[in-house]
Amino acid sequence: MDEKKSLYINGKKVLIEGEKNLLEIIRKAGVDLPTFCYHSELSIYGACRLCLVDVEGRGIMAACSTEPQEGMKIKTTTDEIRQIRKISLELLLANHAHNCPTCSKSSFCKLQEVARKHGVEEVRFKKIQKSSALDYSTYSLVRDPNKCILCGDCVRACNEIQGIGAIDFAFRGSDATVLPAFGKDLSMVECVDCGQCARVCPTAAITPKSEISEVWKAISDPTKTVIAQVAPAVRVALGEVYGYASGEDTTGQIVSALRIIGFDKVFDTAYSADLTIVEEATEFLERKTKGEKLPIFTSCCPAWVKFAEQYYPDLLPNLSSCRSPQQMFGSVAKEILSKEIKKDKKDIVIVSIMPCTAKKFEAKREEFIKEGIAEVDHVLTTQELARMIDQAGIVFKQLETESLDMPLGFKTGAGLIFGNSGGVTEAALRYLYEKVSGEKLEQFEFQEVRGNESIREATINIAGNDVKVAIVHGLANARKVADKVKKGLCDYDFIEVMSCPNGCIGGAGQPVTFDVKTKKDRTRGLYEADKKLQLHKSQENHFVTDLYRSTLEEPGSHLAHEMLHTNYSARRRVSDTEIQILNGSAKEKLEISVCVGTSCYLRGSQDLLYKMIDHIESNNLQDRVDVKATFCFEQCDRGPSVSIGGKVIEGCTLKKACDEMQNALKK
Amino acid sequence: MMTDTQTMSRSRQFSKVCEILERYSYDSTKLIPILQAVQEEYRYLPEEVLTFVATSLNLSPARVYGVATFYSHFALQAKGKYLIRVCDGTACHVKGSVSLIEVIQEKLGLDEKKRTTPDMLFTLETVSCLGACGLAPVVVINDEIHGQMTKEKTNALIDEIISMEKSYVPRNN
Ligand code: SF4
Ligand code: SF4
Ligand code: FES
Ligand code: FES
Fold it and tell me: CB A629 to CB B14 under 8 A?
């Protein structure tokens, strides 16, 4: 026998080449098995029982959770397998909501596709589940439990990719559901709106929330000027919906389509990405010179920002204070255009087209809405743009290409590669190199920061100085790196964090795909688009330079801070959580709450709470106070936090608390 | 209004939860025994306490909620002072447990959904087989087993508790 191990699939000999399960090897051999709960990026769950195969001598088993073994004889289709599969599918369909024609996932739904392919023509079972209410609570996603098939893909994505666990299985048997903690709305728990759960869901149980009708409404309102900004990652993915190869740059067609739809101007988020680089690199250099607040973390991913606010309040000073390119664009565009076309900001409607669901949440953050006017009014995902194109009756494949409008449609390749993991770092390096060395950078590609691994490091020497960078994607990985930073176990200068696997091109708003190769193609597409442009460095974007000359003065100026920067604050993860400790019987009581959230807890708040109770009891005050243990006053970096009669005491000690209690009770 | 005894117990309960966590060295693999111990303290698993336990164990609240809802042994709703459990296992069912359930529901104004009386005195649950089939039908009130029950006996049992509770005047209001 030769050294290579092999097995037999439908009688054909196939080599075992490191595949971890039968499913992979069968797919390699060109046979497609249906799956719901298998996702090559996630752990194996083996629950949907769709990927069944018959292994001679062992019977019917799930291919995704069976290890390939020498000499196995596998049949991928038998009468029995077809029978079981059909019954499984019928059972799933029986409990699934029956509104396919109006479902937003309709043509991309895996359940529909698999049922059709496997010849399910009727459903012989009755629905036993009651209908549940839809969850519209977040700006980014809609949860429709009636469409859930309990494959658990979303649960594993949130846990394994993002390290969050905002949703999980609850209850059991026929009552089992996927829910946020305590069945709360998704907006009330620690979800960061990244949408990775929606990206992997085979049905429409979790989907990006649509803003299409709001956008149509703005377009048909003659008093509004409607502006589009298109993010880098969108242009290398939208074509997938219309039969273009993934990674193919369809910017020209997108511009035509947006004009037909009725947008007054079509601009590029890559322009404001160039602007971001100038600001962020300047900020970095300043910190590096002063030796403070390092490493700097990038801040262009809103899901990461929310994550940091929830889990790493003490690292918030390290986040770059730069707004994301989306928000910089909105701020600059409204300012410039309102002067140029002499229109009130409220009549200029900025619509971003983004690969991302978290951008919807970002646009609604209160820091970005001033006097009721948002910097960015609506955010459409790539998927929603495709739907609008269809609704307008546009035949995408037949569109002529058109050019973006100027000046905010002008970008360099540095702004474009923002859509790839490592792109922000590379763009920043292209700027830093010339700025610090004073020399022209000839070879502008930094291959050492590119790649697929989810945590990458590189050290770049610029004019004798080493700049140590780290690039992470996926928040579970960001957690690993952030923990190292907190413990002082690393000496990075610059850390890029993107929540979605492989960066924005893998965003949850992108066209639905279950093929990992798609992401590689999109990544390559953006690097190629960079190559094709004339300019590759943000500092060469003369419209950015113009903006400084006409308005912002210089990078990091006071006005630049006002228009392009932001601030962050600690954020509690789960709402409404207070544990009643003492509940006095007097009519007028002093309200006391002690934070037992993670940060305060580590600073000894629990102990403080006990001592305060001792003090209250030994002074016989228990009737006159209400004491609660609560989670997070959102001042975690200054804990332990205690609130007494509405007054929050940071860095609270027993003495401070007792003094304040005495004071307040005297009144 | 809260009574003094309840007030005192609240702070004791919270320190108990901390003790329990300590006893299990904040080990998240011990979640189930931890939840059991916490439930013994509160008689159910209040949401905010579960969040506290989750955060302390470095687990997501959704995961802890998932575990707490998976096992029927855990209660997420506050239970009444008297927990009435009627067995509806095969033996008890055959001997007419359903009519006992109906009698209690009617008497206390409870139904499938509403399991606890508004005054927090009674909670009614049905369970499948308590392992006391020889005594079927069985009604258990706070761990006290009452066998070979009839509608009349059940009625009397509840009346007895009600009148006993009426004569109890809590301190402090
Ligand atoms: S959007 Fe992201 S954080 Fe929220 S539940 Fe889904 S995967 Fe988890
Ligand atoms: S929501 Fe979607 S991904 Fe999650 S278990 Fe249900 S069907 Fe699967
Ligand atoms: S894909 Fe194998 S059991 Fe679901
Ligand atoms: S943990 Fe955030 S303020 Fe206490």
Answer: yes
- The 10s digit of each residue's pLDDT in A54-65 is 999 999 999 999
Place of tokens 């009651």: A130
Residues A125 and A236 grouped into a single domain: no
Look up A550 and say whether it is catalytic. no
The answer to whether residue A394 scores a pLDDT higher than 70 is yes
Q: Is A175 exposed, middle or buried (0-12, 13-18, 19+ CB in 10 A)?
A: exposed
Instruction: Give the Å distance between the CA of A80 and the centre of ligand 3.
Output: 17
Same domain membership, residue A491 and residue A585:
no
Q: In the structure, what pLDDT confidence band is assigned to residue A410 with cuts at 50, 70 and 90?
A: very high
Residue B173: per-residue pLDDT: 37
Note whether B55 contacts A: Cβ–Cβ < 8 A: yes
- Catalytic pick among A367, A453, A554, A562: A367
> Do A211 and A378 contact (CB within 8 A), yes or no?
yes
Quick check: B47 contacting A, CB < 8 Å? Answer: yes
Q: In terms of DSSP bridges, do strands A52-55 and A59-62 run parallel, antiparallel, or are they unpaired?
A: antiparallel
- Based on DSSP, count helices (H) and strands (E) in chain B, helices before strands: 7, 4
Tell me: pLDDT of B5 over 60.
no
Task: Tell me how many degrees the CA angle A253-A255-A257 measures, rounded to the nearest 5.
Answer: 70
Q: Do the domain assignments include residue A100?
A: yes
Amino acid at A625: V
pTM strictly above 0.95 = no
End-to-end Cα distance, chain B: 8
Of A177, A208, A239, which closes a domain? A208
| DSSP reduced 3-state for A13 | strand
CA of B120 vs chain A CAs: smallest distance (Å): 18
Asked if A180's CB is within 8 angstroms of B55's CB, the reply is no
Domain match, A258 and A404 both: yes
Give every CB contact of residue B89 below 8 A, 6+ residues apart in sequence.
Answer: B127, B128, B129, B130, B133, B136
Which residue does chain A place closest to B14, by CA atoms? A581
- Over the stretch A243-268, which tens digit does the pLDDT of each residue have? 999 999 999 999 999 999 999 999 99
A54: domain CATH number? 3.10.20.740
Look at the block and give the residue holding tokens 């009614």. Answer: B124
Q: Is residue A620 over pLDDT 50? A: yes
Q: Number of CB pairs < 8 Å for A and B?
A: 95
For A343-387, how does the pLDDT look when each residue is reduced to its tens digit (9 = 90+)? 999 999 999 999 999 999 999 999 999 999 999 999 999 999 999
The residues that bridge with B91 in the sheet, in sequence order, are none
Query: Is the pLDDT at B1 greater than 50, yes or no?
Result: no
Residues A36 and A141 in one domain: no
Averaged pLDDT for residues B145-149: 91
Catalytic residue among A362, A384, A426, A660: A362
Contacts with B10 from chain A: Cβ below 8 Å: 580-583
pLDDT computed for residue A538 by the predictor: 97
Nearest CA in chain A to B66: A170
> How far apart are the CA of A554 and the nearest CA of chain B, in angstroms?
45
Tell me how crowded residue A372 is: count the other CB atoms within 10 A of its CB: 6
The parent domain of residue A413 ranges over: 212-564
Mean pLDDT of chain A: 93
Answer for the pair A307, A499: CB distance below 8 angstroms, yes or no.
yes
Q: For residue A1, is it within any domain?
A: no
Query: Is the minimum CB–CB distance between A596 and chain B shorter than 8 Å?
Result: yes
Residue A266 domain flag: yes
Confidence of residue B136 (pLDDT cuts 50, 70, 90): confident
**Active-site residue, A191 included:** no
Residue A362 a catalytic site member:
yes
Does the beta-carbon distance from A181 to B62 stay under 8 Å?
yes
Please report the domains of chain B, with CATH numbers, ordered by start residue.
4-70 (1.10.10), 82-164 (3.40.30.10)
Assess if residue A82 is contained within a domain. no
Query: Pick from A167, A170, A613: which is nearest to B69 by CB?
Result: A170
Please indicate, yes or no, whether residues A229 and A180 belong to a single structural domain of this protein.
no
User: Do A200 and A220 fall within a single domain?
Assistant: no
- In this structure, are A115 and A218 located in the same domain? no
Q: Is A169 on the interface with B (CB under 8 A)?
A: yes
